[in-house]
Every structure is written in C-alpha cells, then in structure tokens.
Amino acid sequence: MPSKKEVVTMFKRNKRPQDLSPTKASFRSLAIYAKPHKLTFAAVVVCALLGIAADLFQPYLVKIAIDDNLMIGKNDFSALIMICLLYGGLSISSMFFSYIQNNLLQFAGQSIVAKIRKDLFQHIFKQSMSYYDKTPSGSLITHVSSDTETLNQFFTQVLLSLVRDSMTLIFIIVLMYHLDPMLTLYSMIVIPIIVLIAVGFRTYMRKTYQLSRSKLSQMVAFTAENLSGMHLIQAFHQEKEQMSRFTDKNTGYFRANLREIRTSVLFNRSFDILGNLSIAFITWVGGIAVFDKAIEFGVLYAFITYIRQFFQPINNITQQWNTLQSTQVSMSRIWNIFSAQPEVQDKEVSELIPLVNVQGDIQFDHVHFGYQKDTAVIEDLDLHIAPGEMIGVVGTTGAGKSSLISLLCRFYDVQGGAIRIDGIDIRDISQTDLHRTIGLVQQEPYLYAGSIFENVRMFDPAISRETVIEACKLVGADALITRMKDGYDSRISERGSGLSAGERQLISFARIIVFKPKVLILDEATANLDSQTEQLIQTALNIVAEGRTSIVIAHRISTIMHADRIIVMSHGKIVEEGTHAELLARQGIYEQLAHHSQGSHASENEANGRMSSIG
Ligand SMILES: Nc1ncnc2c1ncn2[C@@H]1O[C@H](COP(=O)(O)OP(=O)(O)OP(=O)(O)O)[C@@H](O)[C@H]1O
Question: What is the CATH number of the domain that holds 557?
C-alpha cells in the first residue's frame, strides 16, 4: 500500500502507483482534496452525533411516559408535561443540528468540487493538440460539469448518510440492547439478508450506472459536434439524418437510464419489505413477551419505533449506493483526465532559454512529423525564413501546409529534426514565450461571445481602449465598427456570428497589431472571402506584415503572389521554391495551381458580378 505522501506526490505528478486500483487511487485523490476541510468535517460529525442523540432519545421518553406513568396509573401531570416539553426541545435541537450540519457539509462539498473543477479545467487547458484530436469536446464538457457535480453529491449526500446513518444504526442497536437483548437479537436476523442483497446488486448496479453515463456522454458529444457544425448541417440539408442519429443516441440513453432506475427501485424496495417484515415479526414476538409480562408495553413500543428508525438509515445508505457507484465512475473518469500527460511540455525552468529581442529568423531543419508514428505528413523538410521575410505557402490539399504551421506553433512536437527561432530550438523556449512571438490568423478566426473591444484585446486588461481603436483603424476595421450601434462595445455572439467572414478577419488582424507578435502566420485567412473583401484584407495584411516575418498559406495565388518567396508543398515536402515570376517561368506545379486559381477566381468574380447585377 503506498504511503500518504506517495499518494500526494503521485497526484501532483498525475501518476498512479502500480498496486493501487483506479478506484482506490481516485478516492485517495479525493481525500487529498478533502483534507483542508477536515475541521469542517469534524464539526459535521459532532453536529450529527448531537442530532442523532436528540432524535433517538425521543422514543425513550415515550417509553418512560407509558411504563412509568400511564401503565401504572400514576396521575402525575407535571411529569407528563415535563416529558412533552423535553420531547419538543429534543425535536427542535435535532432540527438545529441537522441545519448546521447540512450547511457545513454543503460548504465543504461545494468548495472541494469548485477546486477540482478549476484544476480539471486548468489541466485540460495544458493538454496538447493531440489530446483534443482524440477526445471529443462533448465528453470533456460532461466531465467538467456533471462528473464534478456527482462528486458534490458524494460529499453532501453519501458522506452525510454514511456518517449520520451509520452512527444512528450503532446508537439504535445500543439502545435496543439496553431495552431488551433478546428482542435485539431477533431484530438482527435480517442483517445477513441485507448484506446478501447489497453484495448481489453491487456489480450489476455499477454496470447499469456506467452504461447510462457513457450513453449520456455520447449524447452530449454528439450535440456539441452538431452545434459546432451547424452551418454544414444546414448547407447539406442534414437535419433529418442528424435528427435520426440523435434519436438513436437519445433512445439509448433513455433505455440505459430506465434500466438504472429499475434496478435502483428494486434494490431500495427490497429493504422496505425487509423492514416491514421485521416489524411484523417483532410485534408478534414482542407481543407474546408483553402478554407473558416478560417485557413492559413501553419497551415494545420503543422497540417498534427503533426498528422503524433502524431501517430508515439502512434505506438511506442503500439509496446512496447509486451515488456512491456514480462517484466511483465519475472519479475514475476525472482521474483519467488528470493522469493524461500533455505530449508537448515545457522543459524545467532552469533549462529554458528566454526569447528576447526576437528578430524572427525561422529555420525548419530536416523536420519529420506524422500524426500517427508510421505515416509521415512532413518528411525531411528544410526551410529557412529570414527576419521580416514574407513566405507564401501553396500546395495541393493534404500536402502538409497546416501541419507545418502547427509544428512551428508547437501544437505538436517534431519527430525528427528541429525548428528554430533566432537559432533557438523551439523545444528550449517556454510555450508562453513561443506563443507570444507567433500570431496566428486562421481561416475561421475564433471570436468569443463579448464586445468587439474585448475580442480585440482578448480580455487582457493591460491593453487600453486607445490601443485597440488605433489597431482597428490601422487594419481598416474602425469604420465598420463605428457604424455599429454600440461601436466598440457592440456585443458579438459566440464564434462571431453576426459579423461577415471579412469583418471577423479584420478583427483578428487588429489582434495581431495589438499583441505585436514578431512572426505572423496566416492559414487560409482569405479562403472564405469574396474577391472584393480579399482586396481589403490584402491591404490590411500588408500593413500587419510590415516588420514581421510572415508565413501565408493560401489556395488563391492572388494572396501570395507578392510574397518575397513562395514554396510549393506536395506530400509533406517542398517541391518548388522561388518568386511568383520564377515559379511561373518554371511551368511546374505552381504554374498549374496558378492556372486553376485564376480560373476559379475568374468564375468567382463573374458570379459576384452576376449577383451584384441581380441585387
Ligand atoms: N489532427 C490530425 N490528425 C491526423 N491526421 C491529420 C490531422 N490533421 C491533418 N492530418 C492529415 O495530415 C495530412 C496533412 O494535412 P494538412 O492539414 O497539414 O494539409 P494541408 O496542406 O494544410 O491541406 P489543406 O490545404 O486541405 O488544408 C493530411 O493527410 C491530413 O489528413
């Protein structure tokens, strides 16, 4: 068994000792999160103890009233009133302690879960792109939201029940034994049956729970996928097909849920039956004992009340069985996320080389890379880009252009060779430094739900409004923004819907100006634009590229024809290199691409012309 220190270390390092099962390891890690709240938990136990004592003393008071007053015909009204007042006082105290105990537990549970959620979010953020390639975002959403919520239920329901109900059980047995040891033994006959039922149901219930969680996760993943691909679905009239696929997933979840509920109801009801049978049995055995004057009537009354109270906590505990199962499943899923190590990691701080006064010299030195180890996407690629140079990258679909950029941004690590900025291997630079140096504009720039102002400065409070406005003026976005009702405070919805593709692109250019990266990458940034907007973006691009090393990937030759140098990629290699004129003269792949691009451009212009004449 690993020591506590070892568990703490393993959790921090996200490692699991070999001899610890995933469930044990995940509960151990939960205990680490709970540790700072140990005083709160101790206070909960004290409140629970006092509450239970107040609850359980009540039947005993009634027994005293029956046996010491009513049954012997003692007309002591003041004693009876005392008992009633005491009974009322106990009820109020029980409520008071239960209130305090619930509040304390909720506070501790919510704090623990908030911390786990924060760490989980942070951990997911640290993951490399390869992790997101493999993990559907919908399932991550489920883990961060509903799995952590299950943990909250564990603290506020399961733990409470385990503490309060098991203590209640012990107290009841002690009180029953004190009243009559023989009847207590009779009442305990059902215990082995309870254990048998619990063990029998355990595995089956966990399976049904796991199934319903995985169905839920699949459904959420499918919904998230559809929401992000809504344009495509509508454009291809896929609503019916997607609806039918959703219905399958929904039905799967519905069935799994029903199965889980059926099992749980059956499980809980079997305890109810056992409880009622025990009461009937004790009424019979105890009744005979009262007739035989072996016990007093008040004792039988208290006994029957205690048996009812005895089954209540058992019922409570078994009702929590489900949550306990779900906590196990949720915790191991959260644990799995925590134990995922980012493939791209910074070196130790002492080994990192700070990137200062960046010139923007980039070198791809015999770079080799594949998403799967045995399929190369970039093969032995050599490329040197001088500071301030603008490189255009063209090539057929799947040639590896975007992959090259992903490697420069270190979304993935090269498998062979090296990429250097100003002569420093990017693996020796912190990712923060690297990403500060590189500004990336993609085909679909990501815009957050929020104001335009916040979107340009990316929620960085250090960037002033003046800087944002200046940047927008520079790239030609100011006019369109000031035309909007709330100007820079106009709110845009998620992904920037409400703005045209060109407008979104201009905003992302303004970001580049604001964040001043030394290297600028444009990945198909003009692909979605009509030729008129492309002109606007082209002008903005020339302004943004000024004084920066720029890499521009484009399908349209018009976007890169003025670049200092153009490289043509095919099957992960550079196959042609030179200026626009040089490459045309060579009459190779570039010339063919230019030919196609011109053709499609001409027909696009024609189409635009037709549209405007129709308009
Ligand atoms: N995340 C990924 N996981 C696995 N394979 C990938 C991934 N991204 C790209 N690929 C594969 O790598 C190859 C190169 O893709 P890449 O996107 O770099 O090409 P590209 O030249 O940018 O193409 P396009 O012009 O169509 O955008 C393709 O065969 C593609 O299927």
Answer: 3.40.50.300
